[in-house]
Amino acid sequence: MSKIHKDLANCIRFLTIDAVQKANSGHPGMPMGMADVATVLFRYFLKFNPKNPNWINRDRFVLSAGHGSMLLYSLLYLTGYKSISLNSIKKFRQLNSICAGHPEYHPKTGIETTTGPLGQGIANAVGFALAEEVLKKKIGKNLINHKTYVIAGDGCLMEGISHEAMSLAGHLKLKNLVMLFDNNNISIDGPTSLAVSDNFKKRFQSYGWDYILVDGHNENQIYRALKRVQKAKKPTVISCKTKIGYGSPNKSGKSSSHGSPLGLDEIKLVRKALKWKYKAFEIPNKLIKEWRAIGSKGQLIEKKWNKLIKKHSKKISLIKKNNFKNALNSEKKLAVKEPKSLATRKCSELTLNALTNSNNNLIGGSADLAGSNNTKTKKHKIITPGNFDGNYIHYGVREHAMSGVMNGIALHSNFIPYGGTFLIFSDYCKPSIRLSALMQQRVIYVMTHDSIGLGEDGPTHQPIEQLSGLRSIPNLNVFRPADRIETIECWEHALKTLKTPSVLSLTRQNLDPIRKKYSSNNKCSLGAYEVLRTNKKIKLTILASGSEVNLAIEASHKLAKNKIYSKVISVPCMELFDKQSKSYKNKILNETKNKISIEAGSSDYWKKYVGENGKNFGINEYGKSAPFKEIYKFFGLTKENITSKSKKFINN
Description:
The chain is α/β, with parallel strands linked by helices. It is built from 25 helices and 18 strands.
């Protein structure tokens, strides 16, 4: 191992050691162990430009083992990214510091994604690699030709999402994807042998990945492995045998170096063992210059690329177009012209059929439920192994991976990913949905079979608490449209909202149209609006969403026959309604003292609208296996029951 390599790698180690010690919190072991691997990668292979962190043809570097965040921050500082200063590193894990405990995505910083929940970064990396292949097919391999490198640890590979994501990547033959496996055999509880006996080589090869084993502290072995993957024909794992806490006389190779500062006495011993003569946070000028020279190489590479791209400006402009407004307006006019009783999942399919014509940035998919989710139209082209000239992905029964992969696709460039499954399986997707919201990514989750309305499949498949769970996630819009026009409008809002992911909760059963007139205004963007009033003066406000808006309208008409007049409010998106002005919310909610809500799910989130004295018609227990009309009757979600109980409620 050359002396300069040792010194460069030790810059990473000691920035990590000192930052964790100053914060009195953090994970020094992984960065100390993987410093040699990261140094070889950045020095010889990674294509990046710190002066332009968002250069589209850069290699993507993902730290899936996000607890080792100081590895990433050290590399960004050393190579010259403006986002990370030495002062930032000194404020590691402190309030509002970009050097957070786990990497948090920030545009134009070199932090490509938010990681920490183990395995998520692997799925994101698959999304990056997949998006690169699709983009390459669109505008040419001479313009788009980058790789995705992901560092993952034992913990990442224990999580089930790693299996799903790696299996999909192997199936699709994502040859531009490289995993650097920090194979140190240590987890928080101790040696990984406490819980794992996997044969990693056979596991990865069974996915269709190449496997290379190297000494993670041998510069030449690391270099040769990375050189080999430059011409890979399939995704590759480079298993790097490392020592966690490398250089620590008493904690190297032990779990004690994983998640705690080394301590001042041990740090002195590490400095002595690694012959590092510098003070805390001190990096000598000659090594800073060497690292900055590594960072500056990308400027020349991008400069050459920019000359090439000028000749192909039309191709680049293709990936920037999002012409969906006209298509959606035409679809709304058609919905008014041809009113039909349709399931909102079918309404969504018709919307996608219109969008697929005009928007080449949409990449769809489903977790083996394309025919049930109605996410695939006749206009879609399937992405198949080794062939990326398409816009639809068969994810297989891999909800975890699908959601994590979509985050990577959204982060990669200007693609808009959407993926479908049943609403009940949003529980599988929730960790990734939360990260979509945290990273402010435009990812669209199409969740069908959204209530007891799916019928005979029974309580295991009937979502009750899922809407409430999703509504509890900050910066997530949960849409539940009531008919075709509302479905179009919900899609429109989801597409135009750049920094908020969306869930479209859609029915299996047919619904009658509630809107009969065309309007260019998007009423669903208000979150709630009046769809029916049976008299100028009313006694009751009925709030409902999705399939229950039809039910609310029926109940309202039945009450009117008894001279109890009401208005029906469709609430397709609580999150958007809550953002409206106080006067608008008062207009919707405070016209009457009597308020009821109707939704075939848990009723807790409706209480903020109907108040303590209001009445909720919902379901706060598990469903039943039966035809859906019988289940609705069993739970009292009928116009007869709602009318009867509303009368008593008003008269009390």
